[in-house]
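Lab notes, practical 5.
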Amino acid sequence: MIFEKELVHGKLIKRYKRFLADIELDTGEVVITHCTNSGSMKSCLENGAEVFLTPVDDPKRKTKFTWEMIKINGDWVGINTGNPNKLAYEAISSGELPEFNGYTNVKREVKFGDSRFDVYAENENEKCFIEVKNVSMKEGEYALFPDAVTTRGQKHLKTLMDVKKRGMRAVMLYIIQRSDVSVFAPAKAIDPDYAALLKQASEAGVEIIPMQAKVTPTGIVLSRKLPVEL
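Output from the prediction step:
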């Protein structure tokens, strides 16, 4: 995924009200920036750290920038929760992910039951529903999800189990937007219910695929599949 616009560099002053952040640009101007991440952003918030923003021209938007990434421990961490969906769709559509080769029709935002899944793929033999989650939290070498209790995430796992029960392929795809981790696991201490449901879903045949991504100011590229510890 290549960023369509040249990103703007600055440093984080503070994040507040979940969806807002004050950023000081290199020019010295302080701008209010939209933060798409509704979670706690634990382990990827550091006041004074370098950040990159996307400028937004939409006159209807109150904020003129979207926060894309932050530099933590010398490396970029992607915090825009919308990017993993784009990245996954592009990778599956173009055949970049071997786990999803062979599909002839790939769509975004397809409804099943009372849930809407990020990606749907099919061929003449199989239907596949894929839910994509952004992962930015780390603890030691572990990439953890979620970083806050997620009832919506729990609902998605239950619906994926229903998908599998009905004879279709069900996939939980985690996009890990940081390079300083080597294993994926559920954040049991933060949301034990989600962790228990993820294990139950795996045992029911829902596939868990954690893909690590390399985040840079020019774009985001999927790099490798990480092992899972449930």
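Observations recorded by the TA: The radius of gyration is 18 Å. The chain has a mean pLDDT of 95.
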